[in-house]
């Protein structure tokens, strides 16, 4: 028994070696699915774990309570609130950094920091240089990502305008902070390391700079696990109301954390949606391949059984065969996933600034990967092996019975009359077993579907980018103010030489309330006939915002469970902080985020702050760029200047080199899968027909003519696969787009034909590639030995 | 008339070999399939190769047919050196001059009898009407049948029709009756003799049925990779009188 098993095992090894090319192709197909899973899952837990550890070690605040000016002694009252662990009051202010190498002003966040505190809330990780001195008011810690972008080092000096006054500081050290993992300039949605600075000064310096002697303007709190957030927000707002509170918010609304969590959510969705699709496709392929592989071994199986091996022996033999390949796929996939994860981790660190980011090569994912591929391979092989096992040994003993063919029906006959004999052979083979041909075409189609989906995905992102920067926002520069200003500022901007168009905007942070649902967002007030920054719906049509009501995006309306005609309660989070009741006049399908639009004048009227603007979109003469920037710098109360072209380029860069690199990995994988499938189909067809091909060679057919019989079949199947792949691509993409859309980010389900063309080219290239390999096999056919035996 | 055609051709040689050798493998495991074969086969003859299993008959046939290569020595077809030809030249040689019939028929299962013949006719320079080829082997009525619908002997006769349809200069048959019973085998041999006499095709037949030698012009006895004996047969008999 054991001796027999070992002979079978030897056959197993020889067979594996014989089909090594095919086995490798299957290994890669499985590995693609597995590594995608390992990478996204690993990336997710790594980011999650790193974030948790980082937040904990540096005591990232659970809640923020900004105010205008609150006396230090009030801290005690705050710390007495139920659920509060610790409270610190700090000074947080806006500033503008001026650098010789950067013409436009750069937004900065300036924070007070006690260098002697043992373990302060929102601590910093000092990565270079030294801590600031408690007694020296001209020293700062500077955000490392910003310093790196401008090659600033400890010891260098930096000019910062705070509260209208220009200060010159010496950089004592470079720091990272959990508050600025994702360092986003105000009003932007893509990080730009060089255009956002955070700096930390000692308290004396800050009190002096912002006129807050003995006071603070932001309380930061940590909770006990049992704290009631809603209660605390209400209490904080109540206590701080006399001191100009603008509304406490929890960690979930802290901007860096919000983006990080959003990214994690996206990774989670992607990890949930993508790998199963890839794995499902690879299981399907494995099934096809194994079925056909076992079919080519039918006679050997009969022989083995004729020698007296049991059905179980045979089943186990072929299961081992499949498992060997599957486990190979799992291991390669896991290794590849870890490697890709490490690479992606490095890329993530360019955008998410952690002092450390360890890609966790979690061994549980190895277990899952092994289980997935073993199970799927076994499932894929089950039917094939079963059909092999039920064969009677007589099949092997029977004299050679050529497979049955028929001329087919009238149409087929008519067509085949027009063909030469080799083409007839192709046609007859395809029509003899249409189910098998279709299955192969389906396999190729499935692989193509992945490419279609990936291309549609790329198209959708490009579309969003195009719409955001060329349809919605057509300005060159956006200037935001520290607080709403009189519209005289607009005149001031218009008078700058080189500014050709100025369009004001009034946006205000609010808490939306309806049906006991609360949602923190903002209302954007746009002027009539807005041209530089418009409200458009998903059909790119202007949204009608005239009248006194608010127009909500569909996503927001859904969250708030509100319909046109209903009244929305809006708690304004700035200025006098009124609570308003505003009718909902319309709902539009928005592309990005969850916007709420109003007519600017109507909004100002409701706020009882007529003629106020919070920012302005500018169109400028490119030749006078520098002069314009200089003028803007001189205007007090400018919080930030964002350059649209740079933002556009940053976004593009993030897609190309940043986390968007996922797209490329998946595109490459879809190509690998397509090539693997096509190659395998071709190889199996080759094995099945080796003797026929040898006969053709003997009859005097050239290598190319002989290859045609096989490659013509392959090409035909690939062409049949094109419409199937297109249809599958549509399906997978529709599912994907819906599954991956979040509140913040709607993926438009657009279909562009070029996605199909692109995928078709991939499939055809893969076919050509596989065809070249097969042609090589055909060229090497040993005529003498192929004819010696019956099979 | 056929008689005189055949005689006229004996003047020329179809094949000549000198010291033809074939070694499979290397070192101690090497198998010497051919050990210096020197041979002359006049054009138009029907030659039968006899010899024990493993003696190198198929190897010789394959080399002369251009589907295998010798290890050393030389082989000539009508004065052209086969052993010096490139792959491409060998393919052209098979295409223009050679017809093959194998023990296991090697028909294309997806083509009908007639189409199997057409397959070769399509790439030949000077084929005969393919229906005539089928007629020659007595299979005209089964022209539209697929191989799976034919008996072994019928399949082998289709293979012969396929081999002769191009009007080959030489016909190689490796155990053409090996898978057939005696009566069916005789039918196949008759078809071969018909081709040889009617078309003057040089024909080489490998067989284990020594009795077949009676129908040959020349009988070559093979043993151990070498020619033991060549017998010219002056009293050819019809296959009808052969049985084994
Ligand atoms: N591909 C090969 N590799 C190694 N040895 C081979 C190979 N092909 C043939 N041989 C050996 O060469 C020798 C001659 O083989 P060949 O097929 O020519 O014999 P044969 O005379 O045709 O025998 P049979 O009558 O059994 O067909 C044999 O010993 C055989 O084992
Ligand atoms: Mg032989």
UniProtKB/TrEMBL annotation, chain A:
> Coiled-coil ranges per the record?
none
Q: Where in the cell is it found?
A: Cell membrane
Protein keywords:
Cell membrane, Membrane, Transmembrane, Transmembrane helix
UniProt entry tagged with the keyword Transmembrane helix: yes
Span-the-membrane segments of this chain are 23-47, 277-295, 315-340, 437-456, 661-686, 707-736, 756-774
- Quote the InterPro entries the UniProt record gives: ABC3_permease_C (IPR003838), Lipoprotein-release_system (IPR051447)
Tell me which domain of life the UniProt entry assigns to the organism this sequence originates from: Bacteria
Query: Which GO CC annotations does the UniProt entry carry?
Result: plasma membrane protein complex
Q: What membrane topology term does the record carry?
A: Multi-pass membrane protein
Could you tell me which Pfam families the record lists for this protein? FtsX
Give the record's family classification.
Belongs to the ABC-4 integral membrane protein family. LolC/E subfamily.
Residue intervals of the ABC3 transporter permease C-terminal domain: 277-386, 665-780
Q: What GO terms in the biological process aspect are recorded for it? A: lipoprotein localization to outer membrane
* Keyword flag Transmembrane: yes
Q: What is its main location?
A: membrane
The name this protein carries in UniProt is ABC transporter permease
From TrEMBL, chain B:
Q: Which InterPro entries match?
A: AAA+_ATPase, ABC_transporter-like_ATP-bd, ABC_transporter-like_CS, MacB-like_ATP-bd, P-loop_NTPase
Q: Which UniProt keywords apply?
A: ATP-binding, Cell inner membrane, Cell membrane, Membrane, Nucleotide-binding, Transport
Question: What GO cellular-component annotations does this UniProt entry give?
Answer: membrane protein complex
Q: Spell out the molecular function terms from Gene Ontology.
A: ATP binding; ATP hydrolysis activity; transmembrane transporter activity
Output the superkingdom of the source species.
Bacteria
Where's the ABC transporter domain?
A: 15-242
Keyword Transferase assigned: no
CDD domains from the UniProt entry: ABC_MJ0796_LolCDE_FtsE
Against Pfam families, the record matches this protein to: ABC_tran (PF00005)
Q: Which SUPFAM superfamilies match?
A: P-loop containing nucleoside triphosphate hydrolases
- Keyword DNA-binding, does the record have it? no
> Which sequence ranges are marked TM in the entry?
none
In the record, the note on similarity to other proteins reads: Belongs to the ABC transporter superfamily. Macrolide exporter (TC 3.A.1.122) family.
Protein name (database record): ABC transporter
Query: What organism is this sequence from?
Result: Hyphococcus luteus
């Amino acid at each position: 028994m054991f001796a027999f098993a070992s002979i079978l095992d030897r056959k197993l090894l020889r067979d594996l070696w014989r089909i090594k090319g095919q086995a490798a192709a299957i290994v890669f197909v499985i590995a693609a699915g597995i590594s995608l899973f390992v990478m996204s899952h690993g990336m997710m837990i790594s980011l999650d774990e790193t974030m948790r550890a980082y937040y904990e070690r540096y005591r990232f605040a659970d809640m923020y309570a900004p105010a205008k000016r609150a006396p230090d002694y009030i801290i005690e009252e705050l710390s007495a609130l139920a659920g509060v662990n610790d409270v610190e009051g700090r000074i947080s202010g806006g500033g503008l950094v001026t650098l010789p190498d950067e013409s436009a002003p750069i937004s900065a966040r300036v924070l007070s920091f006690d260098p002697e505190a043992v373990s302060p809330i929102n601590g910093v990780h000092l990565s270079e240089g030294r801590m600031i001195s408690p007694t020296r008011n001209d020293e700062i810690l500077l955000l490392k990502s910003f310093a790196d972008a401008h090659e600033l080092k400890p010891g260098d000096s930096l000019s910062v305008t705070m509260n209208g006054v220009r200060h010159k500081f010496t950089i004592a050290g470079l720091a990272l902070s959990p508050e600025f993992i994702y360092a986003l300039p105000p009003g932007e949605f893509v990080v730009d390391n060089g255009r956002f600075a955070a700096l930390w000064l000692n308290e004396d310096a800050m009190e002096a700079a912002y006129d807050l002697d003995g006071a603070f303007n932001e309380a930061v709190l940590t909770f006990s696990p049992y704290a009631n957030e809603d209660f605390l927000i209400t209490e904080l707002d109540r206590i701080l109301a006399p001191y100009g509170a603008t509304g406490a918010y929890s960690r979930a609304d802290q901007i860096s954390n919000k983006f990080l969590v959003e990214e994690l959510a996206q990774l989670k969705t992607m990890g949930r949606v993508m790998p199963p699709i890839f794995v499902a496709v690879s299981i399907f392929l494995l099934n096809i391949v194994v079925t056909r592989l076992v079919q080519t071994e039918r006679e050997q199986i009969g022989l083995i059984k004729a020698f007296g091996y049991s059905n179980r022996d045979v089943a186990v033999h072929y299961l081992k065969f499949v498992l060997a390949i599957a486990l190979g796929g799992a291991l390669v996939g896991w290794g590849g996933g870890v490697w890709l994860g490490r690479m992606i981790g490095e890329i993530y660190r360019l955008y998410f600034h952690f002092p450390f980011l360890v890609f966790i090569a979690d061994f549980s994912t190895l277990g899952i990967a092994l289980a997935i591929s073993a199970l799927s391979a076994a499932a894929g092989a089950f039917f094939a092996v079963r059909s092999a096992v039920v064969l009677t040994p007589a099949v092997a003993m029977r004299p050679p019975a050529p497979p049955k063919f028929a001329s087919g029906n009238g149409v087929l006959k008519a067509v085949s009359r027009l063909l030469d004999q080799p083409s007839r052979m192709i046609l007859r083979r395809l029509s003899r077993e249409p189910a098998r041909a279709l299955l192969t075409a389906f396999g190729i189609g499935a692989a193509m579907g992945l490419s279609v989906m990936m291309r549609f995905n790329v198209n959708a992102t490009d579309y969003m980018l195009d719409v955001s920067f060329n349809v919605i926002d057509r300005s060159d520069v956006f200037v935001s103010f520290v607080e709403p200003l009189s519209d005289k500022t607009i005149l001031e901007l218009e008078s700058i030489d080189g500014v050709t168009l100025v369009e004001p905007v009034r946006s205000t942070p609010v808490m939306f309330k309806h049906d006991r649902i609360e949602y923190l967002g903002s209302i954007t007030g746009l002027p009539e006939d807005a041209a530089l920054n418009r409200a458009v719906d998903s059909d790119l049509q202007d949204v009608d915002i005239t009248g006194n009501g608010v127009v909500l995006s569909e996503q927001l309306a859904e969250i708030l469970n509100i319909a046109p005609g209903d009244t929305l309660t809006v708690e304004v989070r700035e200025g006098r902080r009124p609570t308003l009741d505003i009718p909902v006049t319309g709902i539009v399908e928005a592309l990005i985020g969850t916007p709420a639009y109003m007519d600017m004048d109507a909004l100002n009227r409701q706020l009882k702050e007529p003629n106020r603007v919070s920012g302005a979109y500018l169109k400028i003469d490119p030749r006078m760029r520098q002069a314009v920037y200089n003028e803007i710098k001189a205007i007090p109360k400018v919080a930030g200047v964002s350059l649209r072209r740079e933002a556009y380029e940053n976004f593009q860069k993030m897609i190309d080199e940043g986390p968007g690199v996922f797209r490329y990995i998946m595109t490459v994988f879809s190509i690998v899968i397509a090539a693997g499938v096509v190659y395998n189909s071709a190889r199996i067809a080759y094995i099945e027909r080796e003797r026929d091909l040898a006969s053709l060679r003997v009859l005097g057919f050239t290598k190319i003519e002989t290859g045609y019989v096989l490659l013509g079949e392959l090409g035909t199947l690939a062409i049949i696969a094109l419409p199937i792949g297109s249809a599958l691509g549509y399906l997978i993409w529709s599912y994907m787009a819906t599954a991956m859309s979040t509140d913040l980010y709607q993926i438009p389900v657009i279909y562009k034909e070029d996605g199909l063309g692109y995928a078709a080219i991939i499939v055809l290239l893969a076919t050509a590639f596989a065809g070249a390999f097969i042609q090589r096999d055909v060229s090497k056919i040993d005529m003498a030995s192929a004819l010696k035996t019956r099979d | 008339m056929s008689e005189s055609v055949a005689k006229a051709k004996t003047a020329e040689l179809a094949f000549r070999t000198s010291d033809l050798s074939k070694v499979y493998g290397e070192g101690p495991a090497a198998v010497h399939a051919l050990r210096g074969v020197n041979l002359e086969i006049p054009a138009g003859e029907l030659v039968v190769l006899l010899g024990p299993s493993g003696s190198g008959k198929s190897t010789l046939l394959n080399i002369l047919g251009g589907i295998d290569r010798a290890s050393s020595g030389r082989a000539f077809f009508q004065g052209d050196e086969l052993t010096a030809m490139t792959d491409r030249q060998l393919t052209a040689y098979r295409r223009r001059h050679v017809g093959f019939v194998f023990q296991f028929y090697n028909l294309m299962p997806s083509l009908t009898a007639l189409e199997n013949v057409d397959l070769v006719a399509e790439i030949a320079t000077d084929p005969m009407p393919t229906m005539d080829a089928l007629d020659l082997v007595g299979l005209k009525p089964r022209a539209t049948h697929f191989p799976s619908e034919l008996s072994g002997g019928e399949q082998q006769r289709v293979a012969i029709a396929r081999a002769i349809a191009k009007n080959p200069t030489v016909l190689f048959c490796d155990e053409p009756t090996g898978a057939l019973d005696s009566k069916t085998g005789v039918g196949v041999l008759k078809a071969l003799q018909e081709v040889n006499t009617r078309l003057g095709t040089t024909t080489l037949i490998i067989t284990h049925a020594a009795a077949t030698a009676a129908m040959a012009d020349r009988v070559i006895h093979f043993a151990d990779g070498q020619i033991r004996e060549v017998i010219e047969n002056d009293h050819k008999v019809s296959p009808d009188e052969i049985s084994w």
